[in-house]
Design goal:
2 copies of one chain form a homodimer. Chain A is built from 13 helices and 2 strands. With 290 residues, chain A is mostly helical. Chain A has one domain: Farnesyl Diphosphate Synthase. The longest helix of chain A has 28 residues.
């Protein structure tokens, strides 16, 4: 099976991230000179930060695998990155994780205050919706990934669970929603941009579901063993929460990730060479914490 | 000029509010039994509360004036009410107005906690976007009313101004964005649902711009002279802010409202009898604080 070499994948990701970031820059353009400066500064601070743009790159890779037009997929890629950044700002708030560090920088509310952070997050989310307005189906897909059955449902469940030992189905619910939902939407949006068949949509959905969960597990492992200088966020902030490491241990988590990555790659196996980029992305997630 | 009698307007508003609330109820339906109960309860608490649904009714009245289909306009009416409720939740947060009372009830964050209030607000906003997904133009219109050039821009400017004496252009900026933007979007969405001409779109835009500002001024007056049992929110919370009453006095505010309501009615004068409902709505706003 064809898998892009690590170096080729790096180039692919860098190019994708650059294209997405060009759109994000345009999304930050200010048309009215009376718009409060702090609102613009806050959005820029959170949005333009080091990152692989993994969700956005997933949009592009899915679209290109399914012979879609990269130019049509780019706004959708920008949309998921806008939404992702918005959700990180909210997760970090004092009333939620009360985090100090994100993407290697002081968290937004500690720089620009809580109210501005909340309002910047909502504005970024709004910009995310604007970027999918060309397609009713894409908008429904993005909305589902955000709302009660997506990021927000997962975040509320996560906060509710704080400090208590979780049943496995609750832990899976939290991660499927906090992390999985936006990965799945990314893959779907790429497929929708390519005008994919229902069968191909289902394939990338399964790919992304497995990839998202694997990503979350590697996150849990990194939170235990990772260096904040590398992860760019506070270490051990999940201390009070049930994590996959608590349930499966580090070795068990690695085995679970292996299974999920194999399942992700299996779901797109019939696409052969065209799936090389998605396979390489999955392998990169597998190696994140090793 | 035809103006609906007060009683006929009350009936129109009650019927519109009931139709809109039927859609809001459906928007609160939960499809997944694992969705955290508190998330559903928080959204219901804030959304289903006494209120005239003035913005939603404006959508319907504009659509019907321009011979649009009420059924097509209803989701847009629900959208502006979802967005309006979302913005009220955020305005009331401890990091913003720190309000205790809204729509005659304890504010959401004091009942369900700050994190749940923020997340419920974002979920309601997301549902608002879902309700306009049939039209790319409607979505752009709603997004503009929310983002940097709308509610959020106005709210950031308002918080920034807290405690300082404002220039008149800054005061106008704040109100045009915090209140005006969603009124204008309501009128535009009604016109879009009716497939209106650009000329009619411009007419209802001018109507709503004047109505929104008049509404804000009556709000300022009510905040000084109003009874919390009637207004349903804390009295005198705007004490530290420059209000229209500070700048123009109560009498001057009344005169300004008269001018704005006359301008609102003037913009739709050529529509004759068909504009009777919008004229009656404007007259109702004129009398709010008298």
């Amino acid at each position: 099976m064809d898998v892009l070499e690590a170096e080729a994948l790096k180039v692919y990701i860098r190019r994708g991230a650059a294209d997405i970031e060009a759109l994000l820059e345009r999304a930050l353009d200010v048309s009215d000179e009376m718009t409060p400066e702090v609102l613009c500064a806050a959005q820029r601070y959170a949005l333009i930060a080091p990152g692989k743009r993994l969700r956005g790159v997933t949009v592009l890779a899915c679209a290109e695998m399914l012979r879609g037009d990269r130019v049509k997929a780019l706004p959708f890629a920008a949309a998921v990155e806008l939404v992702h950044t918005s959700s990180l700002i909210l997760d970090d708030l004092p009333s939620m994780d009360d985090a100090t560090l994100r993407r290697g920088k002081t968290t937004l509310h500690r720089v620009h205050g809580e109210a501005n952070a909340i309002l910047a997050a909502v504005s970024l989310l709004t910009k995310g919706f604007e970027h999918v307005r060309s397609s009713s189906r894409a908008l429904a897909c993005l909305a589902r990934a955000i709302g009660d059955d997506g990021l927000i449902g997962g975040q509320v469940a996560d906060l509710e669970a704080d400090g208590s030992v979780l049943e496995l189905d609750r832990l899976e619910y939290i991660h499927a929603h906090k992390t999985g939902a936006l990965f799945i939407a990314s893959a779907e949006l790429g497929a929708l941009a390519a005008g994919a068949s229902e069968r191909d949509l289902e394939r990338v959905r399964i790919y992304a579901k497995n990839l998202g969960l694997a990503f979350q597990i590697t996150d849990d492992v990194l939170d235990v063993v990772g260096d904040p200088a590398v992860t760019g966020k506070d270490a051990g902030t999940d201390r009070d929460r049930t994590t996959f490491v608590d349930v499966c241990g580090v070795e068990g988590s690695h085995r679970l990730v292996d299974e999920l990555i194999d399942a992700a790659c299996g779901s797109i196996a019939t696409l052969g060479k065209r799936a090389a980029t998605l396979r390489a992305l999955a392998e990169m997630v597998r190696r994140r914490d090793r």
